[in-house]
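Field: sequence (string)
Field: structure_tokens (string)

Example rows 1 and 2, in order.
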Amino acid sequence: MSTVRTSDQDHALPLNLHIGWSFIAISAIAIGLYAVPPYLTFSPQDSRIPLNQLFASHLPWLFLHALPSGIALAIGPFQFLPAIRNRWPKAHRQLGRLYLLCVLAGSCAAISATVMTTAGFHAQVGFGLLVICWLFSGWQAYRAARQGRFRDHRVWMIRNYALTFAAVLLRVYLLAGIGLMQFVPSISFDELYVATIWGSIATSVLVADWFIVTRTER
């Protein structure tokens, strides 16, 4: 198993990582504040995605997915700060437990929401793969921490949060794609939506493992 080159004695991120962390934290919180509140009203008109009229429970499942997933999205960046991890280890552990519980709850709700999506089979496969990888990486992170393999724990947490952050990338890609549709009208919204799902997943996985490899002790 690869190990991330981070020192438990470090209390500050290098400048380049601090800039990257700031961008991730700000964008994660911003997307959380944008995506989650509409589902708190339980109003179909406020839903960010089309609801499947065949399932009256589609909106409640979206709420049960959006709320814990939004919390995980906001908590995640702070778990990678050495200052918090080293100076307040108890807070780090408690936030970590809350994060993984939110991932578990968000994943379970996402299974039902994925079945009900109106975006079609290819979107269902993409979301289904994301849920499986989200749960698997979260379990591996939890197991590594329980066994005292803290470097392996960080590797799996990087992978897991990258998948959480796919929610941000999906919306960024979707916004860019909608702009592109003005110039390429032959692209349908459904095609664009499926492409953004797969694109956000692929980007998250590749960037996470690139970061792990480039920050790994040899």
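Row 2 begins here:
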Amino acid sequence: MKILVWLDEGTWEACIDAARDLPGDVTLLHVSDVDTEAALSGSAGLLGRVAGADPAGLLAAAERRLLEAAAERLDRHAEIVTVRGRPEHEVLALCASADLLILARDGDRRRLGPRSLGHRTRFVVDHAPCQVLLVWPGSPPPLGSIP
């Protein structure tokens, strides 16, 4: 089985934990969002000036740290793939050669329901050409949290 694990800041630990004991070949995927890169670029960028820093270098270093931590937590061999682009499109493109995609809820984690998925995650769940394992980062909210 070919397992693709979509790693995103804030939810990657739950995805690694879900993949750890599954049989098959694991690929760890991180997508650098070109919109985030664009927001950080320019003379000041949308997020303000970062004195003496290279925004692309900062993003690359953060990506490297995330992937190193994920590989260590997985504690088994995995292929590591990094791409740049629109995350939802890049994830779907790589799903074409996967049997299982593991991703995490990234929206409102306080209650059950459709808003527990961010728009990109919803797009991937709705369009994935393979099986999908959707995990909660942390404990799921109680059943009484349904709006």
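free_text_note (row 2): The CA atoms of residues 9 and 62 lie 10 Å apart.
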